[in-house]
Amino acid sequence: MMKVVQGDITTLEVDAIVNAANQVMLGGGGVDGAIHRAAGKELFDACLKVPEVRPGVRCPTGEARITPGFKLPAKFVIHTVGPVYRDGQHGEQEKLANCYRNSLALAAENGCRSVAFPCISTGVYGYPVEDAARIAVSEVSAFLTSHADMTIAFCCFSDYDRQVYEKLLKTGGWINV
Ligand code: AR6
Predict the structure, then answer these.
(1) In the beta sheet, which residues pair with residue 79?
(2) pLDDT for 122-145, tens place per residue?
(3) Which of 6, 51, 60, 118 is 20 to 30 Å from the Cα of 27, by its Cα?
């Protein structure tokens, strides 16, 4: 099932929380900073051990990597890197969809039954939340057709984001985007 929650993702008691990271994967601002602060220094050390695929890139845009959650209530952190939004004409949609697809595949591979996502790319990376939410809900609902036992939460930080997701789930407006 899918659900919408509002609040700080670092407090959620789920099997995995997803981090809106950057390619270097060593922390940053926004939800990334909050997750690193709450998980503790061990998360930084675990990220450092993730091999670079090329200099300065541990996780290319659209891909995902998993680490333990350390001090978090969540068992795992799945780090994914959303696209920086330019104008919607530079493959942003496909890259954002890949974030959800790859994060969910990694969660399933690691036996997670409950996963929480923040609104990836919609902060510093500038993705319009309405468009990002349609992609998020579309990918999650497609994934759930073959993983009906899993619970996926969209963890919204703001009232506005929560309303966008709630409206989408209520109207089914994500179908065929
Ligand atoms: N819990 C849930 N959501 C949160 C939290 C929190 N504690 N804190 C912020 N958000 P952003 P991006 C929301 O900017 O756009 C970082 O520096 C926030 O309100 O965190 O993918 C990384 O290192 C927004 O809705 O991620 C990258 O460099 C959403 O999380 C870059 O920012 C995503 O905003 C990634 O940018």
Answers:
(1) 19, 65
(2) 999 999 999 999 999 999 999 999
(3) 6
Q: Which residues, judged by CB distance below 6 Å to any ligand atom, belong to the binding site of ligand 1?
A: 8-10, 20-22, 28-32, 34, 82, 118-125, 155, 157-158, 161
Question: Domain limits at 28?
Answer: 2-171
Query: For 61-113, what is each residue's pLDDT tens digit?
Result: 999 999 999 999 999 999 999 999 999 999 999 999 999 999 999 999 999 99
- In the structure encoding, which two tokens stand for residue 166, read together? 């709630």
Whether 45 sits among the annotated catalytic residues: the reply is no
Q: Phi and psi at residue 167, in whole multiples of 5°?
A: -65, -45
Total domains in the fold of the chain: 1
Residue indicated by tokens 């950057």: 22
132 located within any domain: yes
The domain that holds 78 is classified in CATH as 3.40.220.10
Nearest to 83 by CA among 102, 66, 97: 97
Ramachandran angles phi, psi of 60, nearest 5°:
-65, 155
